[in-house]
Structures are given as C-alpha cells and as structure tokens.
Amino acid sequence: PIVKKEKLADKIYLMDVKAPRVAQYCEPGQFVIVKIDEQGERIPLTICDYNREAGTITIVFQTVGASTQRMVSLEQGDAFADFVGPLGCPSDLIDEDIEELKKKKIVFIAGGVGTAPVYPQVKWLHEHGIQADVIVGAKTQSLILLEEEMKAVGNVYITTDDGSYERKGMVTQVIQELHDQGKQYDVCVAIGPMIMMKFVCLLTKKLEIPTIVSMNPIMVDGTGMCGGCRVSVGGEIKFACVDGPEFDGHLVNWDEAMMRQQTYKTAEGRAMLKELEGETHHGGCGHCEG
Predict the structure, then answer these.
(1) Are 157 and 134 in contact (CB under 8 A)?
(2) Phi, psi of 59, deg, nearest 5
(3) Per-residue exposure over 191-210, b if at least 16 CB sit within 10 Å of its own CB, e if not
(4) Among 45, 172, 29, 65, which Cα is nearest to 109's?
(5) Residue 20: phi, psi to the nearest 5?
(6) Helix, strand or coil for residue 70?
(7) How far is residue 24's CA from residue 52's CA, in Å, rounded to a whole number?
(8) pLDDT of 71-127, one tens digit each?
(9) Pairwise CA distance, residues 81 & 70, whole Å
(10) SS3 content of the chain, % helix, strand, coil (to 5)
C-alpha cells in the first residue's frame, strides 16, 4: 500500500510505500522492483529513504514512459501488485570501518533525479557522525529535489544550468572551484544522468579523486536477464542490477555505455545487441552460471 504521495517537481513524484520486510533489510545504494499490476512492466527504482520502525520505503520516480505515467494515477491508499527488494549491492561506504571513514573527506554529486539515491547515503553517514559535502545540480530551480532534507544531513552546494538558483553552471565547475579553494577529497560519489557522471569522472580522474558511480539509469528488469544494464568496467563485462549498481567510475567505458543505452531503446537495437554480444548479452539471475 502507498501511505504517502507527493509531487516534488514537474513529472517527478515521491511515494512512501508500506513494505516492512524490505525496510527491515535494505541499505543505502540498493533498489526495489515495482509492478503496478500482474501485467505491468517491472520498474527498478533506487531506494530514496527507509524507516525501519514504520516499515516504509521511499521511492522517487520521473514519468518517462507509459508505466511510470500509470504510476502517477496511483494515490494514497492504492497498492502495488509487487514491491520486491532489497536488490543490488549496498554502497561500499557502509562496509568500511567507521573510524577510518570518519577520517575521509567525501563529496557527493547529485544530478537531477540522482538526488534521490544520493540522499540515503548522505543521511547514513550523518547518522554515523560523518558530514559530507553534496553538490546538487539541476536544469533550473524548480527541478531541485529534497533540498531541505539534504541540507539537514550534509553541506550542500547547489548549481543550476540556467542560474535561476544559487550558482550558474555545471556540477563539474563546482568540483573544480572547491578543489581550487583547497578542498582535498578522498572519495567522490556521483549519481545522475550518464553524461554528467562521465564528465565528473573525467575531472576527478585529473584531480586524482577516486570516484564511485551508480549505473541505475541503465537498469531495466533488475535481474540481469534482459541485458539492458550490461556495462564494461575495467575491460570486464558487468551487469548493474546484479554486480552493482555502484562501480569505479574511472573504469567504466562511458562512451560504449551511452551508445549502447541508445541502441537498446528499440526492438531492432536489442536484437542487434543480442546477436553481437552472444553469451555475454545477459547475466542470468546473478546466482547461477546461466
């Protein structure tokens, strides 16, 4: 059941869903698969927040197709047919020794809807006594998400493409400015559009900042069987939904990933990729050799 629904911006919505078993076990960085009804499309969505006591999961989604448009019609009191999770691997940060993590300077880059999966990681760090810097980028002020929530748990820098709020420019410009001011980061976590993550990684590689990215934008069925989230990382074939969604951003083949994402959108493109990639086209269920 949906216990809360809120419109955050144009075509962007937040929902709190009663899913106590998912809320009990999920960690920052993981995702869920939702289906509106038995015939509905499987939609992978990164967990934006969770409340173990209330047994709720917060999801944020943007209407980009027929299935997400149907999700908008759901209201508080309605229910999803399926709400499966937690899936994927948690953020690497939560497995580190807390005392060692406290010594690190961490910066998060949140682009557009990527702000939603950044938030639980920043919140988790804050709860463990670690204050991270967060650079939030959006096209315009009306598309900035979770501003107050993010400011409550991190040091937030906001930039907009059109200059309508705070700074004008790309997130990479803010990274460079902070570096020039003497900020020395030990790790960067970037989540957002593919093109944004690519250019963040090009800059952080030059600045010698290890960078983690989330490949959730390319996930489709969430099990590795469709081949949609196939990506080359350090020359090895990985699948975002079973091996990730987080990877070393400096090892991702961005040009290949973005070109493949466009090709995968059509039936003809998917057929071509399946033919070209053969046995490596999909990753099975992630728990077998298939």
Answers:
(1) yes
(2) -120, 150
(3) bbebebbbbbbebbeeeebe
(4) 172
(5) -60, -35
(6) helix
(7) 5
(8) 888 899 999 999 988 988 888 888 888 888 888 999 999 988 889 889 999 999 999
(9) 13
(10) 35, 30, 35
